[in-house]
Amino acid sequence: MDPFDLVSEEVPSIPFEQKQLEILASPDVFYNAIESGIKATRRRIVLATLYLGMGELEKRLVKAIVENKNNPRVTLLADAIRSTRTLKATAEFSGVQGCERIARLPSSRVALYQSHRVRGWMHRILPERLNELLGLQHMKVCVFDDDVIVSGANLSEEYFKTRQDRAWLFRGVPALADFYSNLIDVVVSLSYQVTPEGELKTTSKETDPELADKKAYCDLFRSRIEAFLTEAKTKYATAIAPRAYDSAVFPTVQMGAYGIQQEVPLVQRLLHVLPACDIAFTTGYFCPTQELEVAMTAIARLPGHPGSQVHILCAAPQANSFFNSKGLAGVIPAAYREMLISFLQHTARLPNIHVHEYFRPGWTFHAKGLWLTTRGTAATTLAFVGSSNYGYRSRNLDLESQVVVVTRDVKLQRRIEAERRWLWDARYLHPVTLQGLLLPTEPRFKWFIRWTLPFLRRIM
């Protein structure tokens, strides 16, 4: 089946030309694109992030929004639990203070999403970081008029300096900009609104994730998102013949806590219907769902396609953002290492699965993505970029979105492959084998707590 048809059956399809896509490979290029977009915007700025950081670079972004002389409509969506954690910081500037500054603009809306699971006495006695395990606003999107940046990076200083992630900028694609602007509007309507005074309010009790009846709130959330997606599928269905264009972008939404599943079934279907392909998969947090593991190993085992290769890249423990953290967070890198060991125990005899860890001194690794390349004379590249880490948490708990780019354009295929090679930089790669990870010098969980891994998989 044609890859364009395969993806467009599931989600909206938006054609574009290869020159409209700019791959923002490094943190500084990512930051400069955001700052330039804010300053050049005339009509609308839409930002979705886990949180707004507290550094000097974030101050500059907020300042640029406030000082934009065109007075564009500004929408900011972040996560309530993660954002309000910064209230205890002693810094002069916090993410919430940045939200307040934007909320004071006359044509702005600032909202903080809170999972419906975060409520009652449990919410009040649990440490903040444990509350975050119940579900987060995890989408990472920036809209500047008709330009869109889809990324896995938050609006925080480390992502602008020393945390390797991915970000793609689509220039002049109004349908994609409208899709994300409208999607975020729906989530904003179901979230806490930040007032100019810094208070959190909702428009009604039924949209209050903590006070509303839990089932009623979930039903309302699901119905509004489903209505939006149904309308978007019709509105953005490509009206021209599939062979009339070489590239298209397909936005997907994953909100498993409310029964919204687009990414997971799409990935599964692609991996089952397009078996004769090469796969590259990267994540900062190695915890793929069982379905993804099975699909990747099935391709590696196909007797009819012995040349199919599966390349996997994940963060070394030292490149994990939780490395050397205090308390329970400090064991997170070892937990991901245990999951990698478990994966290798099932795939060690498959020579066409190649696993590497990324370690760059002074940097952390947060990049996630999936690349599929079909074989034959009409080779097609399918590349995913966005917020998902492809794990159980992304599938079941958080609000996620990513785009799939499908292209036969040779120039764009080369640029997409160049980004992948940028991530698989030999200077920072370390081949991983099962025997090597079992050495006593490597980070491991204590033997008596390894039994918790099945539970940890569900929340990581």
TrEMBL record:
Metabolic or biological pathway: Phospholipid metabolism; phosphatidylglycerol biosynthesis; phosphatidylglycerol from CDP-diacylglycerol: step 1/2
Gene Ontology CC annotations of this record: mitochondrion
Gene3D superfamilies: Endonuclease Chain A (3.30.870.10)
CDD domains registered for this protein in UniProt: PLDc_PGS1_euk_2
Reactions it catalyzes: a CDP-1,2-diacyl-sn-glycerol + sn-glycerol 3-phosphate = a 1,2-diacyl-sn-glycero-3-phospho-(1'-sn-glycero-3'-phosphate) + CMP + H(+)
Keyword Transmembrane found: no
Domain PLD phosphodiesterase stretches: 133-159
A GO BP entry: cardiolipin biosynthetic process
Superkingdom to which the source organism belongs: Eukaryota
GO molecular function: ATP binding; CDP-diacylglycerol-glycerol-3-phosphate 3-phosphatidyltransferase activity
Function: Functions in the biosynthesis of the anionic phospholipids phosphatidylglycerol and cardiolipin.
Official protein name in the record: CDP-diacylglycerol--glycerol-3-phosphate 3-phosphatidyltransferase
Species in which this protein is naturally found: Echinococcus granulosus
High-level lineage: Eukaryota, Metazoa, Spiralia, Lophotrochozoa, Platyhelminthes
